[in-house]
Amino acid sequence: MILTNHDTTYTDFFMGQSQYFHAPMVKWALENEGACSWSILEDMMEAGALTESERKVIQVNKELGVEAGYTVSFKSISKRIKGAIALTGRRGLRQSDVNAIWAEHGSDILIMNNVAHLKIMTLPYAGPTRHLTKRQREALQWVGDGKTTQDIAILMGLTAATVEKHLRLARESLSVETTAQAVLKAAFQNQMFVLEV
After folding, report:
1. Residue-averaged pLDDT of the chain
2. Ordered domains of the chain (ranges, CATH)
3. What contacts 43, CB < 8 A, 6 or more positions away?
4. Are 176 and 186 in contact (CB under 8 A)?
5. Angle CA(90)–CA(95)–CA(100) in degrees, nearest 5?
6. Alpha carbon distance 53, 136 (integer Å)
7. Rounded Cα distance, 138 and 34, in Å
8. Is residue 142 classed exposed, middle or buried when 0-12, 13-18 and 19+ CB atoms within 10 A define those classes?
9. Comparing 49-58, 129-138, 162-171, which segment has the lowest mean pLDDT?
10. Half-sphere exposure of 82 toward its Cβ, with a 13 Å CA cutoff?
11. What is the phi-psi region of residue 66: left when phi exceeds 0, alpha when psi lies from -120 to 50, beta otherwise?
């Protein structure tokens, strides 16, 4: 999921042309946790540590006014997911200006970003996968608790065959082959433990 307030000229380049694959600060975010000033980009350029594709991203960023900021990378519970926030300084701000702002308010900014990240991580999944029914979700929750099909049947007041049907439909909805994969994917998509509204 990508949330941005950049204009479409920038997002068409960065996301539409998949340039984020070549963005040095995205690479940094995947390999690190915490906050990092974009001033490291100059050090990387001077050291010759950037690929041609990475230098192109930096050049287009400058042309589009995206040249100063901080990247915040969050701790992940799995290698399959990663959360990060790029805080871009407004057009005209130099990196030294952004660094001064961070020096004064960085701890507060970091706290606000951690709260935003935690909230985003708990949002229900809204992607192309079909949502689980209440019974499918309940059956997967019991599997996640280590219960057998027979245990789940007793707990849910169903036959074992009906439990198997709910688990099969959950696998189909999540486009996975095994029930273990369904439990994992439903958990990643925040479909396991949902507050009924």
Report:
1. 90
2. 8-121 (3.30.450.80), 134-188 (1.10.10.10)
3. none
4. no
5. 95
6. 45
7. 36
8. buried
9. 129-138
10. 15
11. beta
- What is the C-alpha to C-alpha distance for residues 2 and 24, in angstroms, rounded to an integer? 17
Cβ contacts of residue 140 below 8 Å, gap of 6+? 132, 167, 170, 179, 182, 183, 186, 192
Q: What was the pLDDT predicted at 64?
A: 92
Angle subtended at Cα 185 by Cα 169 and Cα 187, rounded to the nearest 5 degrees: 105
The sheet carrying 84-88 orders its strands as: 34-37, 69-73, 84-88
Three-state DSSP class for 36? strand
Q: Are 140 and 167 in contact (CB under 8 A)?
A: yes
List beta partners, residue 35: 72
pLDDT for 129 equals: 58
Distance (Å, rounded) from C-alpha 152 to C-alpha 139?
Answer: 7
CA-CA distance, 188 to 127, in Å (whole number)? 12
